[in-house]
Prior knowledge:
By secondary structure, the chain is α/β, with parallel strands linked by helices. The protein is 42% helix and 23% strand. It contains 17 helices and 17 strands. It has helices at 2-19, 64-70, 109-124, 127-143, 156-166, 187-200, 221-234, 246-256, 260-266, 284-293, 301-306, 314-320, 339-354, 362-369, 371-376, 410-416, 444-462; strands spanning 25-37, 45-54, 57-63, 71-78, 83-86, 88-93, 146-153, 169-176, 207-213, 238-242, 274-278, 296-299, 324-326, 394-397, 423-428, 431-435, 438-439. Helix 4 crosses helix 17 (444-462) and helix 13 (339-354) crosses helix 14. The termini are far apart.
Amino acid sequence: MALRFLVVWAAAVAFAAAAAPGQPRRVSLLLTNGIVITEDASSRIVDRGAVAIDGRDIVAVDRSDAIASRYTAADTIDVNGAVIMPGLINTHTHAPMVLFRGLADDLALMEWLQKYIFPAEAKTVSPEFVRAGTRLAALEMIESGTTTYADMYYFEEEIGRATKAAGLRGVLGETIIRFPVADANTPAESLSRTEKFAAEFANDELITPAVAPHAMYTLDAATLKACRALAERLRIPVLIHLAETEDEVSGARKEHNATPTEYLESLQFWGPRTLAAHGVHVTPGDIAILVRRGVGVSHNPESNMKLASGTAPVEAMRRAGIAVGLGTDGAASNNDLDMFEAMRQAAFLHKLVSRDPRAIPAAAAVRMATIDGARALGMEKEVGSLEAGKRADVIVVSMDATRQIPMYDPQSHLVYVTRGDDVTTTIVNGKILMRDRKVLTLDRRAVIAEAQSFAARVRAAVQ
């Protein structure tokens, strides 16, 4: 009884000390002396600002002097005038496909898929391949400031484990497709794998399992309905490709007398926490359906341009109220995972096609890569902005490069000047994954050596 009294007394004393008026609160990490781009509801930018982090959460965002008066930390990083901003959110990729980077370029989508990617995958994809590719993708994302990414591929449990080990946040879905693939012979088998994957990562701090039907043209109606039913039963998101090419739309009209969006609506497929990747060829009627169903869209400007798929009507979607995030797509069709490039190309592309230099201004591009991406994934209450109570997913971006001098507008610089390798520090869930350009959660040399060994196998498979 005496021991219990002492423990309770000691805890009370500690709490009183922490809460004592005028005493700074002790937190785990302070980022100070930076330009803080919050992406909160008022789009606040704090010059000479700071962010206080305790454990996995942000506890305060304010001027550096105000933070210093209220908080002390076990670790303080003086960013020396750099930008402090929310971690970038890549709303669509296929992480292990970094191992196919540059394998087949300058081709139309279906030729690229059917003549090169699908045959290469059939000969090379394995759990070991997926682990190696995910580690390489994670390294690239950490080094370029991505803290959350959405993925659909095969052996997704391996992607989940590698992502978690690297410290990244992921919304990850096992691809469900009608023909035999590396980890399943049938869509039913893929659905079963999805359920096991979801059970493994249920309530995980970093990994959100998802159901990932490939597309309406690669699945039958019964499977698409089964995907929606599984997502509703498990209460997890859905990821799907939508209206990426004109061929997809013409095929849907011929077979179903409907657009892909309309066909999926007829199956009662659409629902909350659903992300549609691409949306290149959606009509005003399609946009109205997506708005009504609360569907998010991932815009992938680089992949869409490189494959000549077309230009998504992003401004019309945003005006209608759709949450439009940015994605890189897989590095086999982009060919990198640098979200700063995605921001830049989104801004350039829509200025060009609209012939309006005001289209997708820099501030909008930054929002698409942060809070709008979080909204598209249904995660805006957790990530996407720097606000007290949200998860501490934060990056520090240097503005010291010669090409960045002078700087008048930090958001303009982030979109039109900055590159992924300007990121110096990457933090996810309050954990520092990279500091001063040194990745702490992955052995860079080992990851690259492993990737090179698999590249030799890919080369041999396609010769």
